Amino acid sequence: MSIPQDIREFINEYPGVNDDPDASENLAFYSNNLRCRPDNVLIDEIHEQWLGDYRKLEYKHGFIQWLFPIREYGMNWESQPLQPHEIEAIKANAEITTRVVKSYELMLDFYGMRLLSQETGLLGRVLPPRNFETRYRNLVTSSHNYLRISRILKCLSEFGLEQLNLGFLLHILNEQSEFNELVANGLQNSMDRWWANCLRNQQDRIWVGAAISRVRASEFVFTRKEYEKALWNRKQNGWFGAMCKETTIE
Q: Were both Cys, which of 36, 66, 123, 136 would link to 171 (CB 3.0–4.6 Å)?
């Protein structure tokens, strides 16, 4: 399956895109010193007030470019593309990096998921009284979230948090393969062409792509046990290890 042009540019770290030292609004926003536009809220206020406000997260659109800036223009022209000097400053600041992860957790909750390990990227379903089934249905039917997820994954990679991408992708693959969740055609197409390629580490990208292909071909079931083992191996050894053969479908 061909890789879309925007993903190729992302993988190659946007060749030809130069740094603008005068553009620092993303850094100021994540430093909690600038209110995003048009919503006029600080990053800490979003984290404190918007968690669980699913209607707001569904129907407002301008905030996503501020929470997950990338080196591309989005639909909110009141935001700025991410600049290389901002990337380095954000990665070097533990407090700001924590805010980036909190933004990710905010959207995970909206999608019916929760972060279990920042180190490995391991995800689980949201706990009651949250209802993961309702959130999963919303993700399946609200396709504008597919573009949001591409942006989220690109952003996390920019800030050196690509293990979170791996945890997200393989969580969805486990849900699809073992539990028949999140299996809509549009979602799977976005996952296979866009999300799975939002990995700059070529070795990881090849492994994840191969796992997805095997699941799509009904060659094996990607179980929760296999998911957890793959992430653990990746953290400990820098490599997922061999794909399970014991769960092959007869």
A: 123
